[in-house]
Amino acid sequence: MEYKHFSHQHNLTLHKVQPGQQFQCHGCNLPCSNNSIFACWNCNFFLHEHCGNANRYVKHPSHSLHPLVLLPIPTYCSGSFLCNGCNAPGTTFSYSCTLCEIDLHVPCAYLPPKVSHNSHQHEIYLSFSQSDKNGSPANCKICTKELSAKQWSYFCNKPECDFRVHTFCATSEVKPGLYQDDGPDNDQIQIPVSSNHNTCVYQTQAPAGTPEDVLAEMFQLQMQLQMAQQLNQIFNSAKY
Ligand SMILES: [Zn+2]
Ligand SMILES: [Zn+2]
Ligand SMILES: [Zn+2]
Ligand SMILES: [Zn+2]
Ligand SMILES: [Zn+2]
Ligand SMILES: [Zn+2]
């Protein structure tokens, strides 16, 4: 059985990773271990099954203005992007809004809205802003390193608790990559689900047409907005 992925010119085959085998996912740059991967053996091109199946676009709660589109490579001339979720650079797949220069690693885009961590007795919630109660710079309560204001975090919303941690510290024990293959009906459009499995899917709103239609429509919209912005710039600069 062969598969086609928009980011690679050859067909891919599904391969079950054997113990001892080492592959690196081209989508998220993380190693693939004891899972299924999509592979092009000619090019040594590999994708986690969940990265290969990641939605072409998502409506993400951190950026509700525009849908985020899955880009195979960063569109910036530097060839890399800075993730708005974890503040680390990335050179592979990203969920991006090119209008607003929002870019997310695929794993960051799919961080669950809440998780449990054995270092805290309550469930902790994903927060996209650092507007802390006192506004002072915080340190992660798990690794004790600094929590930058540019990073998302997980926090406990109980008033008596002052618990805020890095996203990667909070999810270090969470099974990665259960994006959409966790339920019995994978192909269904789902609303964000929260379960005890520490997994969640941010899904797109039910599209009117096929995904391609919606994508095309979205790009058109983005182009129009971009043109409007450029015109605006020209107009403004012409005044001086
Ligand atoms: Zn991956
Ligand atoms: Zn190939
Ligand atoms: Zn990230
Ligand atoms: Zn945007
Ligand atoms: Zn930490
Ligand atoms: Zn708490």
Overview of the structural elements:
By secondary structure, the chain is α+β, with helices and mostly antiparallel strands. Among the domains are: 2-52, no CATH class; 57-109, no CATH class; 114-170, no CATH class. Helices cover 17% and strands 25% of the residues. It has 4 helices and 18 strands. The protein has helices at residues 49-52, 106-109, 167-170, 211-238, and strands at residues 2-3, 12-16, 23-24, 31-32, 36-40, 45-48, 57-60, 63-71, 81-82, 89-90, 94-97, 102-104, 114-115, 124-127, 138-139, 146-147, 153-155, 164-166. The strands form 6 sheets. A 4-stranded antiparallel sheet has the order 1-2-5-6. The protein has a 4-stranded antiparallel sheet with strand order 7-8-11-12. A 4-stranded antiparallel sheet has the order 13-14-17-18. A hairpin with a 4-residue loop joins strand 11 and strand 12. The longest helix is centred in the last third of the chain and has 28 residues, at 211-238. It is flat, with a radius of gyration of 20 Å. The N and C termini lie far apart (62 Å). Bound molecules: zinc ion (6 copies). One zinc ion binds at residues 140, 142-143, 145, 165-166, 169. Keywords: Repeat. InterPro entries: C1-like_sf (IPR046349), DC1 (IPR004146). It comes from Rehmannia glutinosa (Chinese foxglove).
